[in-house]
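Supplementary Note 3. Input sequence used for the single-chain structure prediction.
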Amino acid sequence: MKVLAIYGSPRKNGNSSQMLDHLVSFLPDYAKVEKLFLSEKNFSGCCATRDCKQLGYCPVQDDMQEIYKKLLWAEVIIFASSSQFSDVSVPVKKLMERTWWMKGILKNKIGAAVISGRRYMESTINTLSAFMLRHKMILGASPALAYTFTEMGEIDLDYLAFRDTEKLAQRITELYNLIYKQ
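The predicted structure, written as discrete structure tokens, is reproduced below.
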């Protein structure tokens, strides 16, 4: 099981990052987990030249070139994002925009998400789910959610968040075994 854990929060140890760490800890021992901290990468959003349409790849040379390789390597892609102004974090949005040329290439990879936010996470859920579905990824469960305020560590007040990440890890493993362990 090749897992790409995408940490999309600007805070490396923020609430959504803690959720993703918890989820990863419940994956089976045979899982190879690659952690990707978007806040440590230097890349822009889409510059809309549309060159990728003819080329079949994004010609912008930045850290996304490395991220593309990780996306292609992975069998499971898990996003962690805080819900900022009722949607995904800016680093996650930039990554999503830059994968436009990859439509169909991520097909049948297992997709999942964990989200932390104060409230109003519906748009964040919809954005991540729509992204994965547009790429024809396999979604087997709703994202795990944590209802927090704005301070790091407040996730500890939401025990359901950790329980739900454990359930999501279990569901990811079930899907992986159904698809890859035939």
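The longest strand covers residues 110-117. The first helix runs from residue 15 to 25.
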